[in-house]
Amino acid sequence: MREVYFIKQNKEKWLGIEQVIQGKIKKNPDDLSSLYINLVNDLSFAQTYYPKSNTTVYLNHLSSQIFQKIYKTKRVEENRLLYFFKTEVPLLVYQYRRYLGYAFLFFTLFTLIGSLSAVYDKDFAKIILGEDYVNQTIENIKNGNAVGVYQSGSTWGSTIGIIFNNIGVGAKLYIYGIFGGVGTLWALLSNSVMLGSFQYFFYDYGALQDSARGIWLHGVFEIFSMVVEAMCGLILGASILFPRTFSRFNSFKNGFKDSFKIFLSTVPFTVCAGIIEGYVTRHALEMPLSLNLIIIFGSLVVIGFYYFIYPSIVNRKINNQINDAVL
Fold this sequence. Notes:
The chain is mainly alpha-helical. It has helices spanning 3-21, 29-49, 54-72, 80-95, 97-120, 124-129, 131-142, 155-175, 182-204, 208-241, 248-279, 289-326.
């Protein structure tokens, strides 16, 4: 069957499913399951005969949306907040997982640029981090206290300021995606270059190990969240640039709704990073090295599992439930 005829034959059905997803048409769970099964059949046909077509991309997106619609009805039986973090966000992360890959790719590239710039220009760190900060840190390193900058101010006051600052940085990474994703990449470039030059600066002064013991106590949650927030900005930008078969406005609405939910999921990690930085990092060099490593790698396991592994587990579980219901 020619693709044009395939589209013409099923267009009204697909538009009707869009209406259901947007809540303009109400369906009971059984009808939703029937729509999903029908749509999966269309998707399988398109993947077989038009594997690189926009039709296949569109049907895949539509299937994901109706897939989530079916299981949102379970929120009546579950705690809404628990459902949000346990099911809804992981499904969205799985759906947009390639954007998380793009965000990490750009983050790695930009961080390397920052490090290499610091290697070839000894004044680069002063330009990026500020001369006063660099001079103060050099003095701290000479005094054997590489993380001395984190010991200033009160614990609670520092914590509140850090949390609001980090949320502000994350919001910029996300909202700047409205400029077709370019704004997000610019914000990610600025922060990643700073991180790269920051780490090389400590290496250059022989204090990389001491700095890592402190910085990465809170840095795992903070930096990983920053990359996920960049992912959200890229999703937002892509929804504007690549609307597929949706109108540009509807594509933007869908992209904003999905990306904002993922963005909200980073807030608890950002808050935890602020608390650790305000209360724990200042004691980094007094702590046993084993405790530093437990916190650092424990944080990495938690957030890495949530955004990289758990989404696949949830997606597989829901798929199995759908297949059991169909059978």
